[in-house]
Amino acid sequence: MALQTEIWLNHLVELLYADNTFAARSVDHSTFVDKKTVHVPNAGSAPGVVKDRNVWPAQVTQREDSDLSYDLHEYSTNPVHLQYSEEIELSYPKRDSILGQAKSALADNVHADLIKLWTPEGYAKVGTTGASVPSHLVSTTGNRQAMTKADVLSVAMQFDLDNIPDMGRCMLLDAVMYNQLLASLTESEANAFLATADAKRGVIGQLYGFDFYKRSTVLRAAANGATLAATNAATNAAAGLAWSEYYVGRAIGERKLFLNEDDATYFGTVMSALVRAGGKYIRNDKKGVCVIFQTTP
């Protein structure tokens, strides 16, 4: 039979990763990323106020400050072997592709963890109130109530009651919950929402004082929304996260690449990557963070 010439395109279709621009909306502790633990001092109670004081001396008190801390973790990729023959024979730069993929995989894992680390135990929560729709979270069954603009307003009211600053409010939704929210807006509301998008900051719209961000997945909550789900269960609910950028923190280091060039035992190059990272809500009273979970009808 005749020999057929094989033609390879000189590029490689890479894997896709979630958008992580939301992380910039937090207090940056990255200067401490070389330490084991980041400490965030929290001020104690404010002094009492007396109107028309007529008793002296006034009672003297002390303010009891507290320490909130979080540890840094190391995230590392499994080493990848690139054979010498692959470097000289392939029509695309596989080494660059492997290193780029390692960087993206690290970022994806770090930021998926960061969302959970920002979510305190006993968090404030708001359940969705929209129409009953099929649950979209992987491994779940049944219906859940859709995300609506009324639910965003409920979170805004919660933040107002907690005296959270109007500036710096953010909300991260998964792709399905985001589109459910868009569907609940009138045409003029949707146009106004989309007109406020800021591509440089990753903001995809603004509503009721919140800058919105979107990611393929955000959080998985238990059916009643009271806790994050420890395991995948059919009754779990998809959830988004609202926060004040002044009330959550992050520490993310530079990605370190490791190369064993021309390894004599592998007859090629072995590559891996590592990054140190961590984060947490930074108020002991846990204010400034709220979970929006999809209610079971």
Describe this structure in words.
The protein is of the alpha+beta class and 297 residues long. It has two domains: 24-43 and 65-114 and 250-281, Translation Initiation Factor IF3 (2-Layer Sandwich), CATH 3.30.110; 118-247 and 283-293, no CATH class. It contains five helices and 17 strands. It has helices spanning 84-89, 94-117, 149-161, 175-184, 187-195; strands at residues 27-28, 37-42, 66-71, 73-76, 80-83, 124-127, 132-134, 143-145, 169-174, 205-207, 210-215, 219-221, 237-244, 248-252, 256-263, 268-281, 289-293. Strands 6, 9, 10, 11, 12, 13 and 17 form a seven-stranded mixed beta sheet that branches. Strands 1, 4, 5, 14, 15 and 16 form a six-stranded mixed beta sheet that branches. The longest helix is centred in the middle third of the chain and has 24 residues, at 94-117.
